[in-house]
Structure to design on (472 residues):
């Protein structure tokens, strides 16, 4: 007898595009211009870095499109790396990718508290608890963040169709709001293009600044790879996935550049950033458009945050579900809700982990998310390398074969930029410690909890990962 665990096929192409874009554009597009982008690379340097990063992601996405068409199953990179390089590499890929997904959910949620601190000062900053790494933790913000996490976990469990349409609404609200802000920013009589000078950050060489932006491309664009996680739930041909990924990356790049430009164009940006405003983008928009601008910015930011939470709830839970189906995680993670046909236990786990993180403060979360680029880059490497391995055995596809090879090399380049001392994007000391701890936990987990996964034959594993079946 054969049993198959099935997810509901209800995602349309527009739902999937919205899922990817909403996952790409989270809190970072609204916070990082003042915190990192401008002081590292300046307006033009950031734009160049983002465009180069998007071009690299598109090269990588070509391999994703090929692999999704070949293996349209939940788990994405986990399945791809298993078919390309076997169980050990598949576990390594999934372990690092899982960290990226699990970290981004609570970080998007805590950004709601960041909005509250600026737009509604004092409203949520009640019940001071303690300070961690310079970040004051308030009970009011913890409760508010936790409530948001509960609400979107509930909608995610209720069904991919509901989440998909909510994601689509949020994506259109996000794009529309950012479009209004950039048009007003460029055409407003009080703004001046001279405010964008110097075009590069004066404290950093242009090349180093651009490379620093390129190095975080895996973090900036992580989200297009959420599409393979949902491949089992497409209600359309998986052949369309490649085009949807490319369009979402292009839109993502434009959104990042637009928000960075809006932040820089209101005042001479270098003096503005040097004054260390609490929230540079919020301050710039408020001075440009007043309360109306803040409302539009608030809509864009809330749409981005909600879309990011929903998107990574989906991506993380489908990855956990796929690993459980392959016996790499306890079977509890592979439970499918009998009514809603969603991996409800996996979603609950993501919720449980996310509920812990607001108590540690946002700065500690940033240390973990610094590693999200490494996790994403490792997923990119395994996907492109697996695609190259399959393409070598097939006739034709010469261009795609070249791009998959280039994609694998570039993915390794991202990892080098982050872990080699002296590189412009070298991880901070706390992030390196967190990375070592995560690697150690993975090794312990693999040798203990994943024992069944290790013992299964390759044929049995393939049946579980690719077909979602096991012999009973």
């Amino acid at each position: 007898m054969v049993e198959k665990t099935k997810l509901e096929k209800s995602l349309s192409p527009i739902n999937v595009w919205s899922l990817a874009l909403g996952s790409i554009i989270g809190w970072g597009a609204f916070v990082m211009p003042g915190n990192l982008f401008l002081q590292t690379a300046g307006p033009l340097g950031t734009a160049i870095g983002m465009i180069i990063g998007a071009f690299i992601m598109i090269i990588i996405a070509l391999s994703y499109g090929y692999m999704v068409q070949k293996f349209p199953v939940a788990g994405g990179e986990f399945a791809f790396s298993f078919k390309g390089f076997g169980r050990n590499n598949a576990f390594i890929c999934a372990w690092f990718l899982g960290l990226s997904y699990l970290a981004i959910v609570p970080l998007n949620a805590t950004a709601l508290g960041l909005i509250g601190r600026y737009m509604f000062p004092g409203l949520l900053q009640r019940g001071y608890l303690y300070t961690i790494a310079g970040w004051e933790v308030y009970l009011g913000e913890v409760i508010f963040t936790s409530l948001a996490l509960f609400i979107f976990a509930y909608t995610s469990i209720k069904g991919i169709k509901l989440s998909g349409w909510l994601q689509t609404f949020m994506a259109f609200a996000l794009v529309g709001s950012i479009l209004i802000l950039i048009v007003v920013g460029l055409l407003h009589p009080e703004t001046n293009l001279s405010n964008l000078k110097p075009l590069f950050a004066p404290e950093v060489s242009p090349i180093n600044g651009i490379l620093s932006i390129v190095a975080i491309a895996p973090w900036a664009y992580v989200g297009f790879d959420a599409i393979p996680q949902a491949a089992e739930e497409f209600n359309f041909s998986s052949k369309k996935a490649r085009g949807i990924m490319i369009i979402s990356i292009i839109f993502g790049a434009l959104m990042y550049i637009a928000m960075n430009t809006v932040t820089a164009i209101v005042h001479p940006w270098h003096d503005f950033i040097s004054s260390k405003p609490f929230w540079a983008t919020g301050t710039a928009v408020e001075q440009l458009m007043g309360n109306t601008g803040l409302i539009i910015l608030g809509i864009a930011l809330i749409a981005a945050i909600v879309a990011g939470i929903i998107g990574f709830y989906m991506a993380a839970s489908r990855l956990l579900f796929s690993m459980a189906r392959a016996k790499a995680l306890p079977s509890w993670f592979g439970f499918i809700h009998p009514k809603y046909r969603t991996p409800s236990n996996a979603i609950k786990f993501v919720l449980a982990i996310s509920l812990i993180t607001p108590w540690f403060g946002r700065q500690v979360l940033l240390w973990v998310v610094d590693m999200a680029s490494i996790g994403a880059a490792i997923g990119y490497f395994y996907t492109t390398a697996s695609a190259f391995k399959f393409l070598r055995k097939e006739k034709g596809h010469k261009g795609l074969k070249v791009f998959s090879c280039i994609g694998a090399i570039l993915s390794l380049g991202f990892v080098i930029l982050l872990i080699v001392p002296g590189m412009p994007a070298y991880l901070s000391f706390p992030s390196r410690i967190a990375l070592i701890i995560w690697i150690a936990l993975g090794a312990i987990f693999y040798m203990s909890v994943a024992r069944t996964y290790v013992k299964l034959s390759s044929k049995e594993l393939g049946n579980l990962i690719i077909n979602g079946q096991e012999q009973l």
In short: The chain has one domain: 2-471. The mean pLDDT is 88. The first helix runs from residue 13 to 24.
